[in-house]
Each structure stands twice: as C-alpha cells, then as structure tokens.
Model the fold of this input.
Amino acid sequence: MIEKLLERGGDLVESADVCVIGSGAGGAVAAAELAARGRSVVLLEQGHHWTRADFTQREDEMLPRLFEEAGMRQTTDGAYTILQGRNLGGSTVHNLCYAFRAPEPILRLWREEHGLSELTAEALSPSFLRVEKNLRVKQILESELNASNRIIRTGAQRLGYSGFVARHNREGCIGAGYCILGCSYDAKQSMLITYVPRASAAGARIYANARAERIEAEGGRVRRVLGRVVDHDGRPHGSVEVKAKVVVLAAGAVASPDLLLRSGMANGSGQVGKNLHLHPSVLLAGFMEEPIEAYRGIPQSYYIDEFINLEKDPHRGYILMPISGFPVLTAANLPGFGRAHFAHMAKFSRMVGLLALLHDRSAGSVESGRSLTKPRIAYRMEESDRLELSQSLVHIAKVLFAGGARSVLAPYWQDPVELRPGDDLSVLERRGVREGEIGLASTHPQSTCRMGADPRTSVVNAWGESHEVAGLFLADMSVFPTSLGAPPQLTTAALADRTAFHILGRWPEFAA
Amino acid sequence: MDPLPTDFRRTTRRGFLRLAAASASLAALAELRSLPAAATSAAGEASGRFFGPSETEILTQIAERMVDCGQAGAPRLRATGAIATIDRTCLALDPATTRLLPTALRLVEYGPLVFDWTFRRFTQLGDAEKDASLTGWMTSRFEIRRLVFRALRNLSLLGYYSQEESWPLIGYAGPLLRPPRPSA
Done:
C-alpha cells in the first residue's frame, strides 16, 4: 500500500514493528527486506509519490518535483550546489545509474582505521548480489555509448588513460537521455519501481508526504517517530505518529543527522553531523566542431579511473565522468550573463561535459537550520584536496582535446578561461579550484553519522545500529566512515540490506 | 599578515561614505547567504502569485538583461512564460528557501543609488547601464552581492531556457514524445 497523505488528508497514527524513514537506496531496501520476512513495516517519505506519468522531461517541472530546494540546495557559503532527491525513491529516481560495489581498499581502510572488521568483501557479497539482482544491474554495451561518452572514451584512449564502460541498473533503456529528470519509460531501475513496490507487495505501509521531525526513545530504546504531513513545498498539514520497536533512519546524509540533532539522541560521540564528505565535483565544457546532442542517449556510462588508485592510496584520487545537461542546468553552469553567457549557450548542441569527482578527505558539517527543509551545510576543501581538484582540470582538458574538442571552457564565474588546442593547459592548474570562483557540486553527501567500532568516535556500529539507542539503525550514505571514492548507490543499498537481515536475526530481542 | 585589506587602507573619504552606505545594505543582505531566499510579498500573496506587480516588473527587467542574447529574432522574454515560470517555482518552494527574494529584487532596484551614486533606480536605466549595474553585483568583492546576483541570474536562466521558444536559439530539440499515460 502506497498512500499520498496529502490527498488522503487528516493525521497519521500508526504502529509497526519497524518504522523506516526515507525511501531512497537505503530505506527502500530495508523496508522491502524486513516486510518480505514478516515484519510489519511503516515507511515514511517526506517527498511526494511521483510516477513516470509525472516525468515530463521538462526542467522547470521536474527540478522542483525531484530535488531538494528545486535543485538549488547549497552550502551556507553558496559555493557548492548539492543535488539530493525529495520524492518517493529518493535520489535513485534522478541519478545516472552507475552501479559499483564498494572498492575493496576502502573496505580495508574501514576495517583497519575504523575497527569494522566485519566489513569484508566476502561478508558483503550476499547483500551486493541481492541488490544487483533486484536492481537488474548489468554491463552497458559499447554500442550503447552516446556521442559524448564516445568522445570522452576516444580522448582517454588516445592519452592512454585507464577507463572502462560501467555497469548500470537499467532495463530496456531507449536512450532518451532524461535520466536526471526521472525516467519516463520506467527503464531506470530506481527504488521507485523496484524495492518500493516490493515493499508494498510484502505488506509495508508506505506513506508519501510524511516528514519525520523527531524520534523518541524511552529507557534507552527507540519508541516512536513524530512528524507532520507535508505538501511538496514542505508546508505542514496533519500530524504523524508511528510507534515502533525499531526505527531505520535512511533520510540521507543531510536529513538524517538533522533529525538526530533535533531529537537530541545518539550523539554522545559528538560526531552526528560531522565528517561530511561531498565527493565535490568540478566540470569543464568542451565544444566540438559539429552538433553532437550530448543530451541524447545514456548520459554517463564511461568512467576514467586513471587518477585514483585506492590500492596504492585509499585516501585520495579523483574520477573523471561524462556529464550532459539540458538547457537550464547547462545555462546555470556557464559563467556570466547576457551576451557573454549566450556566446557559450549558443554552442549548446556542440557541448561535451566532463567532470572530476574527488575522493575527498575534507570534512564539513550538517547542523539543524531554521527550517526542516533547510539545514545548514558547511564544507570547505582542505588545501591538499584543492590542489588535487585543481590538477584534475588539466586532465579534463586533455581528454576533451584528445577527443576532438575545438575549444574547452573553464567556467570561472569571473574571467572564464577558454582554451584552444595547443594552448598551455597549466593555466588551469594555476588558476585552480576555489570556492566561490567556479561552480562546485555534490551529488554524494556522506559520512555524517559514521560507522565505527569505537562509540567515542562514531555514531553507529558495523550493522548500522546506534551505539547508544537500542533499536535505532541508520541505513544511508551517512554511515560511510570515509568518502567512498566510487558512486555510492549500490554500497548504500547493500549495507541497508545487511542491516535489515541483522535486524531480522535479532528480532526476538527487539520484540521483547 | 596585514590585518587591514589593501582596499580599506586606500579608501578615500568619499569612498568611505560609499562603503558605509553599501555596508548598511549588505547588513540587510546578511540573510541572503543561502539564496535564493523572502516571504511572499503581501501583494503577491493576495493575487496567488509569489511576486507582487512592482516586484514582477523589477524581476522582468533584470531577467531581460540576464538572458539578452543580441540575436535578431530571438524571442523576447516578455513574450514567453519565463516570468510566470519563475513565479510558479518560487511559489512552490519552502518559504525558508525563498524568504528574502523580494528583498533581493529591491536591493538590485535601488542598487544604482547605493553603489553607483546615480539618482535613478535600476528600472530607470538604459540597457548598457543596467548591464553595468548587474556587472557590479557579479564582480563585487562582497560575497553577499555576488550571491544575490547568482540567485537572480539562475532564476532568470531557469525561466527563459525552460521556454520552448528559446530552444531553437541553442539547438535543443526538446523533450521526446511523452509515453502514453497509464489508463485511469
């Protein structure tokens, strides 16, 4: 049962074995596995329940529907744009489908530096296998690369850079290209069409427009979740109360710590909301001789891993990924205004985007803001991260030129740099990446309620359970002890799957 | 390290007065750090729109300069649904996100008086002067002013480039045919 509370009206009073908060890559998986194995589950999702019939392929309609703050969520200094989902299915509805397992060197790092000895590739394998099967993960074929991915692959190969065509969670994709605005064809195997319906079929009661605002505990055990029925704009209507023996918090690395801080719980370590990693990204635009319509076809399938070697150094590196946009998103990333801005926009159909995504060590924070929909997100790159991201600009430009670009634009807000083949690229590294000078973005906020064996330095244990509050589990990217250094969708889902089975195994204890 | 910024030590008396006036305005802008941000104006609220009529006119004139492409035959912003799209977007956002937008518009409207020492408002300027005024916001050393500029610029771009009339200008073919809606 999936219910839109806004349409139903009134208050919501429920009780269940488990209350899951959030329906993205973590929450949907936990809800489905728990419900499928006999637990009564209530899932609360603050966003609306949109379906493919609502996915109009228009930015002005889809950005407000699918993204927090209509895609305009930013760090408090305005330097980073943070794209996060706000709908049933969470960010999996707008993501671009890269499907990677957690890199083994990162798991080793988590074992060695965070005491998470249980997190081995072997131990996680059953969970990865389950989520890969349910999300229909498969290899993207060479023939499915669109024009911009082919250009970037050509560039990487000419330079001898390591790269490959990735695996995705798609089925029957027609290559329309509108993945970031929601798949109108239900080809993207997002939580919206996989785990959420599975959870519903297994008896989970799923409520859209239900915002959790407080978790309450009694005698050291979680007891209930309180909240509001909200419209898509966040305006409150009725009240929500769900009594539960277990709460699985999976609202994402921004909302989850915000909710814990507002609830005043599980923060004896002082680490809730700390250690925020963003996988910050910066992009350059290449302009080809002829129109290529990069917005058609699978937007992001090639993956350049030349500049990240986690075996050698699990703390650093960056990945290069193709990116394409539609008119509004593209326009927002180009510098200037008026005719200077249009000089770049006029080349829209010839544009190829390539971004660097940093495996960051810098740590920001999330604090509760004035509004529940507007937490305070602070992040500033450390100098070593800044230098690395600055170096990436040169490599991006090299790939674009080697792929055939006639010019490359570094879209600094002021005095943008446009280069031609043969120009000295070191100007990019010298100019570098500084907050407020060039567009920076994040689609992977993480680590704000990190896992660890030591309750003094972490929020949850290796199973995602709070060190302090019995029955309180976290199942989203907030639990990553460090930056993952890879696209996080599968790892989030696999850890949530593992958490769900752990809860099931200990159920007699929670039921008592 | 010298604690005084170089620009401050060079400040003349006239410059100091300008700086003081600008600072007063910037103090009011302190809430704009996480833009875009303002309560729906009373006039707007009464009409079911986010912006009231005077705010809509300021926004329109700002947006016209933001998306000016200098192309003969380009669709005029006023002839499209761009401003209605911006209004609809702002109306649909949490007030915490849009709280200070009307204030931002008025600051740009009165910006020429404060920052450029001209006795005309933004909407009374010619195109070149408007561009110069907006450039002042874009390149200001005050981060807050740059954030105001970016917020209004991005809203303008959202409004204009979401209009089908603008797509031929940039070679965007537009959405594919929509799939058939599921039967009711």
